[in-house]
Amino acid sequence: MASTGFALESAASDRGKLRRIALDPLSRVEGHGKVTLLLDDDDQVQQARLHIVEFRGFEKFIQGRPYWEVPVMVQRLCGICPVSHHLAAAKALDQVVGADHLPPTAEKVRRLMHTGQILQSHALHFFHLSSPDLLFGFDSDAGRRNIVGIAAAYPEIARQGVLLRRFGQEVIRLTAGKRVHGTGAVPGGVNRALSREERAGLLAEIYQIIAWSRQAVQLVKRLHDADPELYDQFGSFRSNMLSIVGASGVLDFYDGRLRARDADGRMLADGVDVRNYAELISEEVKPWSYMKFPFLAAIGPQAGWYKVGPLARVQNCDAIATPLAEAERHEFIDHGRGQPIHAPLAYHWARMIEMLHAAETIKDLLHDDDLSGRELVTSGTRRHEGVGVIEAPRGTLIHHYRVGDDDLVTMCNLIVSTTHNNQPMNEAVRRVARRYLNGRELSEGLLNHIEVAIRCFDPCLSCATHALGKMPLQLELQDASGRVIGRLGATPASASPADSTG
Amino acid sequence: MNAASLLLDGLPLPFSPGQTIMEAATVAGIFIPHLCHHPEFKPQGSCKLCTVKANGRYVSACTMPAKDGMEVENNSPDLNDKRRTLLQMLFVEGNHFCPSCEKSGNCLLQALAYELEMLTPHFTQFYPDRPVDASHPDVLLDFNRCVLCELCVRASRDVDRKNVFALSGRGIGKHLIVNAESGRLADTGFSLSDKAAHVCPVGVILEKRQGFKEPIGCRRYDLQPIGMQVGQRPGSEEGC
Known about the structure:
The complex is a heterodimer of chains A (502) and B (240). Chain A is of the alpha+beta class and 502 residues long. Chain A contains 15 helices and 16 strands. In chain A, a hairpin with a 5-residue loop joins strand 2 and strand 3 (45-52). In chain A, helix 4 runs antiparallel to helix 6 (155-176) and helix 4 (104-136) runs antiparallel to helix 12 (346-366). In chain B, strand 7 (165-168) and strand 8 form a beta hairpin.
């Protein structure tokens, strides 16, 4: 499988000496990454790449560990969305212990935990990480472009952001035992239910949370209305979209079947059993990043890449099951005038619709007495393999394990949300680089445009670099003119051919 | 006639004839840090966590008989510093990753580290390579967490009469082994109902498929720190 390369992914080799600009580290994203730009003498961008520079190793060191340890261990991939990894692993291991149908209490406690996670993560991303760009402007004073600046200029917005996140964290604490890195889900169920007092405590706050979530959607809409050209065009590119959808095609963060649409919204695949994910998705390795590049196998790496996350989910589903979020979804879809919305900045709008849906879902679950039931776990015929798929805040998350007769894990494959969005993020970076940077004197504000594009996807770079032993890294020594004079390491079969300027 | 007593950290501590310093303190509800000591087994004084100063000499409280008029120093910065250093050495010698360990919250080593305010490992980690033994159908052995307390050795030898466990090697090479030519637990007479299956103070000998079933908040040391659980036997907690 040879990549034919994407525009600006690799500079043409006959361009002579190029000037290198690095945005390192990227700020206000989860984890560590950098962007490199290669400019020619006329300040024209010849190459733009998002590199992921962390190196983890979870897929390797999970091997040889007992399977019941996995949901607790793998969630350490991330400090922002550990619940998603915790639950995806638990769902995979449900299959290993033969728990095909969880008791209602277990299913609903897990759904509540996950919805709390969506709420807190979306609030964190929008208010803490992205609102400074959106409210102050992409090239505003860098010293003010942070949550402290927001708190000074828009104290009520900052307060709501903090309290929305706090509520989501509290939901997680009551279902998982801790706000970060709890232990609530076990293979076959959960280890605790909620007391009536705990539910009452959350219910006392939930209507305020819903009201604030509605205001957040209105805020994003006002931003779109204020500068429709920017919000509809900035870094925009067309691509396929992927997510799971629940029963009857509704938006479902916790469970469902895989659905993929093309850039025009036409169905490419639907109702795909998550256990067959490997037939739907393949991954490509490139030597300049620790993060792999997934694509729809039937289409191939050149055209088969896709977006995941809020923008994909809200447009992939047929409906949202809660009324306020459903009304907002209709308005969002109408904004596209019959065509899918591909603008990266629209991720924020879709994300806030999802946050509203999460708040409404939490309210419905808290009224359900099953949350306080006593039957917490089940089991059945033991199996040797399980696949757990969940919609994490940032997109589709796949955990796949094989377990031996001795209960030890023999294989682990994780495809995380940010990995799915690898090519889209790179594409957004290139669009922005070409539109805003070409031929201009580079300033911090201009370079922040690149980061704004990346932040739309809410990447978690820590999550995305979990693998070990699969990334053929290549070390190159270049002379002053950029000519490669030494190379260390294997060149993968799938490496892009013109990579000598990386 | 007045009962015999010693002075523990300056306060009188009565004791019965034949009691050790540890036993006398435990009866009085006073905590002396310990790791290899277990009230059901003959003390061996190997972990040295219970080191106290008796009449100016460093001794193991679990093996030292109490003597009338003895002056014992226990909860002092000097002794707690030394105990913390011992804990740090234990932590770096093995692979003690509390965040993903199913014994977390019920682990004596972890509870002592909290009690003695061990904030960093201080020493360079050894990261030893110790594969787990999952051969037994009911019990997992994770050697990564062994602190060589020999409680399993004593329980299997003295209670179960099976001699399943032993320590082998010398010095830094000392390690836990099982009594089978293959080296696998499945090839011994070990059973989940053995006493040795339930005495490990850390996360080495684990009943399979039970990990994390106890929620956070209900684990032994979630309820009270170890220093406030003097005299309660491991495994006697009610949970939530």
